[in-house]
Design brief:
527 residues; mainly alpha; Hydantoin permease; 74% helix; binds phenylalanine
Length: 527
């Protein structure tokens, strides 16, 4: 419980909230990841699938998160604790399943996994749904630990661009430079430290004078820079090749796999599944519409992802580079591209500032989830929580920074993990990325929709959503599509196919099944 003598913090209004939530959503996922995932999965056709995933799975789940936060006025742990009052059969079934899996693991002498699953099973019995809230806090730690390392690279590249050091004649030179840079402990740790320091300083100041104030300054700058980059790159000779590649659908490249990748990307990009939107929703006034907010945040996030492609591919094609090089696209190919255009160092500088702003407003939302838990549930003063856990995340992230590509600097930890779990990812960085992106976020999203749909109940959630959006449950979807939105029902009864009814069906059935399939696919059980 938070200190009752201190009123809970709030956004000053809708704009601040939307910019902060959009700031969380718009991040490295949009500018660094989305373009190369599109590049690898067939351009325009993939973009289309992605849009559908955002609209029919992402947006309904975001609405749930906002409603959970605003109803309870708590961050995720407190929100689940407040609403999960009855014992839930579903939780017991899951708990039993996990315990049985643990016993099997022990029978097969997988001691590490056995112990882990048994402990998890017991935690499920003890904490029930509240565990979903805890997994959000843990995801805050794990995501920020590797996110901050990548964000640190952008800081380093801003410095290098300003110093005129990004003058690579070929991509091979850029690759060598990048490898050297990320493996140099001084640079990697120093930049990671600086980025965490920026996050701490902002979150330390609180909701209104920290997060909201900086989102209001940084987000317009982000829009301006990305716009300037698009105009610059579209006017390069040969740029249209890139636009064509980016926007021409090639449906032959769409497989079940790429649909599931699109869904995972939508979740990560919209910051769903770990309670950022629960926490941010908990600072929102009851008079504001959650429906409009969801539309704005989802729309802005998608717009920036699409614009990022337009800011990158035309330049890549204009200079004759290949678009499907994966994660190295922005740190290796782009500097080489910029090196060949007039005033290249300036454009490179601007691009990495863009990336830094995007990362910063997402980083603060991750730190805020951790901070809000200790403020709401443990009664810590905000400042103490921010500094202590910011420092803890810095330490965890230092392990990521030291082990980005392999375990050579963390051999003892590698040996320990191998001994306990019999397998390990290629690096500590990958371990943290895998744990959060492939496990914590999808499972979080799955349980958030199951909880809203079946435990808290769509009916109660709808009550909350209607505060500030009274007509959400009344809008007849078919009439809406037909342009007859305001037509009163002729027989006076409630219209059957309302937006709210569709939302309920998606939350109860479609989202859980889709997320489950995506989850099984990413962990390799479904091919
Ligand atoms: N949405 C952010 C991005 O696109 C990442 C993020 C994920 C932030 C989950 C918060 C929570 O980069």
């Amino acid at each position: 419980m938070s200190d009752p003598t201190q009123p809970r913090e709030k956004w000053s209004g809708r704009t601040g909230f939307i910019l902060a939530a959009a700031g969380s959503a718009i991040g490295l996922g949009n500018i660094w990841k989305f373009p190369y995932v599109v590049g690898e999965n067939g351009g325009g056709a993939f973009v289309l699938v992605y849009l559908i995933c955002v609209a029919i799975i992402g947006a309904p789940v975001m609405l749930c998160e906002f409603a959970l936060g605003r109803r309870t006025l708590r961050s995720p742990v407190g929100a689940f604790r407040a609403l999960a009052t009855k014992t839930s059969i579903l939780v017991h079934l899951i708990g039993i399943g996990v315990l049985i899996a643990g016993i099997f693991a022990l029978l097969f002498r997988c001691w590490g996994w056995g112990a882990l699953l048994l402990a998890l099973g017991l935690l499920i019995f003890r904490h029930g749904w509240v565990l979903v809230g805890f997994s959000g806090v843990i995801a805050g730690f794990t995501i920020l630990s590797f996110y901050s390392v990548v964000a640190g690279w952008t800081l380093g590249y801003i410095w290098k661009a300003a110093a005129g050091q990004l003058n690579f004649p070929t991509v091979t030179d850029a690759q060598a430079h990048f490898a050297n840079f990320i493996l140099s402990p001084g640079w990697a740790l120093g930049c990671h430290f600086l980025f965490m320091l920026m996050c701490i300083l902002i979150v330390y100041k609180g909701v209104q004078s920290g997060i909201e104030r900086w989102s209001k300054i940084l987000m317009p700058v982000l829009f301006f820079i990305i716009f300037a980059l698009i105009v610059r790159n579209l006017t390069l000779p040969g740029a249209m090749e890139g636009v064509r590649f980016y926007l021409t659908p090639d449906f032959s490249k769409i497989t079940t796999g790429s649909i599931l990748i699109a869904l995972g990307q939508a979740f990560f990009s919209l910051s769903l599944g770990m309670g950022v939107m629960i926490t941010y929703g908990s600072y929102l006034d009851r008079r504001e519409s959650l429906v409009t907010s969801t539309r704005s945040v989802g729309g802005l996030d998608t717009l920036i992802a699409l614009m990022a492609g337009l800011a990158i591919f035309p330049a890549v094609f204009a200079q004759g580079f290949s678009p499907d090089v994966g994660p190295g696209l922005v740190f290796q190919v782009l500097p080489t591209v910029f090196n060949q255009i007039p005033l290249g160092a300036f454009w490179a500088f601007l691009f990495f500032i863009l990336l830094l702003i995007a990362a910063l407003t997402s980083g603060i939302s991750l730190l805020e989830v951790v901070t809000a838990y200790f403020v709401d549930e443990r009664r810590w003063p905000r400042r103490r929580a921010t500094i202590v856990f910011g420092a803890a995340i810095f330490l965890l992230g230092s392990l990521c920074a030291l082990s980005v590509t392999d375990w050579s600097r963390l051999q003892a930890l590698h040996a320990l993990l191998l001994k306990v779990f019999a397998t390990a990812k290629p690096s500590f960085f990958d371990t943290m990325d895998n744990l959060s992106s492939n496990w914590l976020l999808p499972l979080g999203g799955l349980f958030i929709s199951l909880f809203t749909g079946w435990v808290w109940g769509t009916r109660h959630a709808l009550d909350e959503i209607r505060q500030g959006a009274p007509s959400f449950g009344n809008v007849h979807l078919v009439s809406l599509l037909a342009g007859l939105k305001d037509l009163p029902p002729s027989n006076g009864g409630p219209p059957p196919y309302t937006l709210a009814a569709f939302w309920g069906i998606f939350i109860r059935f479609i989202s859980p099944v889709a997320i489950m399939l995506a989850f099984l696919h990413t962990i390799g059980w479904l091919t």
